[in-house]
Structures are given as C-alpha cells and as structure tokens.
Design a protein that fits this description.
Number of strands: 9
Distance between the termini: 29 Å
Shape: globular
Number of helices: 2
Mean pLDDT: 92
Radius of gyration: 18 Å
Bound molecules: zinc ion
Helix content: under 10%
Largest sheet: 5 strands, antiparallel
Strand content: 35-45%
Length: about 160
C-alpha cells in the first residue's frame, strides 16, 4: 500500500533545524500519525511522502516556504503584565489565544519573552523562518475511515479530541 490522499500514515522521524540542532523526535513505538492529502503536515513533507511505501526512508530539508513560512516581525506584540491574571505562569513558548475586542476567532500567539513589566508575544509559528531537516521512515499506512476523512484528520495518536 502506498501513501495516497485519504490514507492515514504513521511516521517516525528526527527533526533538526538548519544548523543541525535536534528539535523533535518520534521513535518506533510512538509514531506520528496524520491524514495524507489534507494539509495536516507541512507541504514539503506531504509532497515528499506521496507514493512512499511502508518501510521507505526519507532524508529531506526544506526552506521556510515549504515548512512553516517566513518569520514575520510584524506579528510581535507587547502586552503589559497587568493584562494577565496574577497567578498566570508566563512561560516562554506557551500559546495564548488573543480574542479581539470586536469579537471573532482570535489568533494564537506564543510567549516569546518577559521583559520587565512587558510580555512579548509572537504570532509566528514557533518554527517559522527555520530551515527544517527531517530524517525518518514510514512505519504504517492504512485506509482512513469515513469519519476521519470527514473530520480531515487521523484518529490514531494524540491531538484528538472533539
Ligand atoms: Zn476527528
């Protein structure tokens, strides 16, 4: 069975940035599962894996435009610490959803740093602007269920709650 649209694919991988520093690792026994052809993973990797068979290995590197996009400095915002509850743990990397006063869906920002009484938030994805290097292997391929296709994501693995 090969990797095609509407199949669920399990991969193990090591992700490194352009300087070779390891960012993420998924080992045998806890592969990462996604639904192919639905934009669940970065475009570069989804294109690479099309047509792969179980056991096939990959070693690929992507520019930001095929990964999480370029870093946009205009997406930084400074917010006063007073805007957060006193017991709020302002940890760098923590995602925060800012809801606009006029309503609407809002946007996810990440805490970049705390500088004095200011919190610097960043609307870029944490890996935006980085070259990404993946080495890994396809460990499982199966047909997706109708429900998975309807939802646009795999129901195997984590990140699944309705
Ligand atoms: Zn679902």
């Amino acid at each position: 069975m090969e990797v095609l649209k509407n199949r669920v694919v399990g991969v193990t991988y090591v992700l490194r940035d352009g300087k070779g520093e390891e960012l993420e690792r998924r080992e045998e026994g806890e592969p990462f599962y996604y639904l192919h052809g639905h934009g669940n993973i970065i475009p570069g990797l989804e294109n690479t894996l099309s047509g792969f068979e179980e056991g096939d290995e990959f070693d690929v590197e992507f520019d930001p435009e095929d990964a999480y996009g370029d870093y946009n400095p205009n997406l930084q915002q400074r917010v006063s610490k007073d805007e957060f509850p006193d017991d709020f743990d302002l940890k760098p990397g923590l995602p925060i959803q800012l809801i606009p006063e006029e309503g609407g869906a809002g946007m996810v920002f990440f805490i970049k740093e705390v500088a004095g009484d200011q919190v610097i938030l960043d609307g870029n994805a944490p890996l935006a602007g980085k070259r990404l290097h993946f080495t890994g292997r396809v460990v499982e391929i199966r047909e997706a269920t109708e429900e998975e296709i309807e939802h646009g994501h795999a129901h195997t693995g984590e990140h699944h709650h309705h």
